[in-house]
């Protein structure tokens, strides 16, 4: 699918990998809708790229539908969905005091990263499936954002790894499910990237993390994630695939 002229939704588009993806889509000529819980930041990014900002909580069906309605009214029905929104969190299963990890913490991470992404995708797909097909029968593309933690989860990352592993496991069956509607589904699993959260760490810690990456021995650039996400859109034979973007990194236990 050509990106030029298409409407593209980016969840978590107000910062980090989502912001980089929104900017790359805009550079390539898409009509970009920046979806984020932080409406002020979403409006700032949208203003800079000539897009539209929509407040959206991906875990809330009413919020998602309202955002999709707003986006459609402003720039037309979307054919591209970049699922980038997500949260982190680490908690040992048994704490130093011997107490079990709070179930609420696990449920919160899985609820946003996995259930929220599924919620966004099902509501987008239902609308996208009603569009007229483009050349080759294609109607739309969805890209999920997993993590290398889906494969190499570290100590304390049970919730995060489970949520990202769920996205990995969902990719192929969802691609098969939506094939009848001409909607492709792929997932990117990034490694260590220079996102705002990571850049808040001390410089020595950042350098140590970068040194753990075989090549290139540096943190990934958000623009590199965005470039891959956009390539998935334009490469019509990419479907049902999970792509690691990590410089050959394999995470150590801690």
UniProtKB/TrEMBL annotation:
Gene3D superfamilies associated with the record: NAD(P)-binding Rossmann-like Domain (3.40.50.720)
Sorted UniProt keywords: Oxidoreductase
Origin: domain of life: Bacteria
Annotated Ketoreductase domain residues: 6-196
Entry's Gene Ontology molecular function annotations: oxidoreductase activity
Protein name according to UniProt: 3-hydroxyacyl-CoA dehydrogenase
Annotated Pfam families: adh_short (PF00106)
InterPro entries to which the protein is assigned, alphabetical: KR_dom, NAD(P)-bd_dom_sf, Sc_DH/Rdtase_CS, SDR_fam
Record family assignment: Belongs to the short-chain dehydrogenases/reductases (SDR) family.
């Amino acid at each position: 699918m050509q990106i030029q002229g298409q409407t593209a939704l980016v969840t978590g588009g107000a910062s980090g990998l989502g912001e980089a993806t929104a900017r790359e889509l805009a550079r390539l000529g898409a009509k970009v809708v920046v979806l984020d819980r932080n409406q002020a930041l979403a409006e700032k990014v949208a203003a800079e790229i000539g897009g539209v900002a929509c407040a959206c909580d991906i875990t809330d069906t009413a919020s998602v539908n309202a955002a999709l309605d707003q986006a459609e009214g402003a720039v037309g029905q979307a054919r591209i969905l970049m699922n980038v929104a997500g949260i982190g969190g680490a908690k040992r299963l048994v704490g130093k005091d011997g107490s079990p990890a709070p179930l609420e913490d696990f449920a919160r991470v899985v609820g946003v990263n996995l259930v929220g992404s599924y919620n966004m995708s099902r509501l987008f797909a239902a609308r996208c499936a009603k569009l007229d097909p483009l050349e080759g029968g294609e109607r739309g593309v969805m890209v999920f954002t997993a993590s290398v933690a889906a494969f190499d989860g570290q100590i304390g990352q049970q919730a995060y790894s489970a949520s990202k592993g769920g996205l990995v496991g969902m990719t192929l069956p969802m691609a098969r499910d939506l094939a009848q509607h001409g909607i492709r589904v792929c997932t990117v699993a990034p490694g260590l990237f220079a996102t705002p959260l990571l850049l808040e760490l001390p410089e020595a810690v950042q350098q140590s993390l970068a040194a753990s990456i075989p090549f290139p021995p540096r943190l990934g650039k958000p623009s590199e994630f965005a470039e891959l996400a956009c390539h998935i859109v334009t490469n019509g034979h990419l479907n049902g695939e999970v792509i690691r973007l990590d410089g050959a990194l394999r995470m150590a236990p801690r």
